[in-house]
Amino acid sequence: MTTFRWYMLGLALLFGAYVAVEYYRPKQLDWSPTLRNDHKIPYGTYVLYDQLPGVLGVAKNQVQAIRVPIYSQIEGVDEDIPTEQRLEQVIEAATDSMDVSEFERDEPAADSTATAASDTQADTTTTDEDADYAAGLEDGDFEPATYLLVSRTFELSRLDCRSLLRHVARGNDAFVAAEDFNSYFADTVGFTTKPVYPRFKTNKKGVQELIPDSVQLQLSNPALARQAGATFRLPAQAVTARLVARRNLPEGTITLATDAQKRPVLLRVPHGRGHLYICTVPLAFSNYFVLQPRTTNLAFAALSYLPTGRPVWWDEYQKQGRRGEQSLMRVLLEHEALRYATYLALAAGLLFVLFEARRRQRVIPVLKPLPNTTLLFTRTVAGLYRQDSNHALIAEKKIGLFMEHLRTRYHEPTLDLTDEATRERLAQKSGVARTDVDALVRRINFLLTARQISDGELLDLNKAINTFRQTAA
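^ thats the sequence. predicted structure below, dont judge the formating
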């Protein structure tokens, strides 16, 4: 084995060892706060979702992870219909079911201002939405279910918000744990969130460092606090928002949990015949804190206010989106190994384009192809024969080419034109009359034995051969 092959074998072994070490190396723990029900990382919600049937007293098949908008889940409307079209359909249905004459008004005067027109349009829109809301409450064909969401943010459209509030007003409960809430939803319910940022300090090198700090949470219900625990201590990074009440917060709102400064982090807001539970500590429901002995009871104590024996809708649409609504690169980007391989392939392709796209040799000059002088050569040779008036050689070559044509075309390797049977066989194969074949043979024999051949005799021979070929074809 040559030295080069030893080097290649050593490189292959090193590469294989590197691949094996990287494959079996323990994976780095992922601390991303996804809060997805299928993630077993510290900040996923797999444990809570798995324990929900026992906590809320329902069968496992009654805990449903929904992957559609709230409106589509509650109202049962086609998901593919745009939001504007859905709103128009609901408003039209609500308007048709009511007495239109009650809302008839005179047309505004010609000199009315733009402000008055816009106010009138806003009042009409509000009236239509209120009519839609009231019509939805009267409809009793909706199944009771508890809505549950644990996410960093709570985003929803106006139509989704009104559908969720109408669902609660029918006598259902909704539990929403998030740090950032949709402004329309927060304004409608009557609260807002106040961010509380972690504190930093500057070290001797002038670099800011996070101060290790914790937040103490406590339950407001004394009986529940005795069973679950009086206080729960969480890192300050896990509790970054507090609830602040607005003037329109409904009466009867109860604070269920606060921090050490009595600032609410969990509220129960009455709405119609149901309740809204608003929590600003979604990480308390993650795998890490649910499995920690010191904080495990916080999540279950908060969920203990929800009714038991009722189907549960666990919202995953806010975190994972609609099923199948991912890009074509979803599979490659979802797995770490495939993601790095994709990025590496793209980078290698870019480097190849940058360095290999330029020409690697000088420009090759364009050479004109050589002209075909076969015809010119033939004419020159024919002119020499004619100049010497030596027609016998031309006739001999012409007859030799014709004989070769007969041998290959009609499969006569031992062609003998003096043989009677051969001429008969040639006439049958070519389809030329026997008399014409005999005439052509006599002309060939004559020219082969003649000492001198005139121009006319050479032309007659050429004409006879061409006539034979045309007739045989």
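The mean pLDDT is 82.
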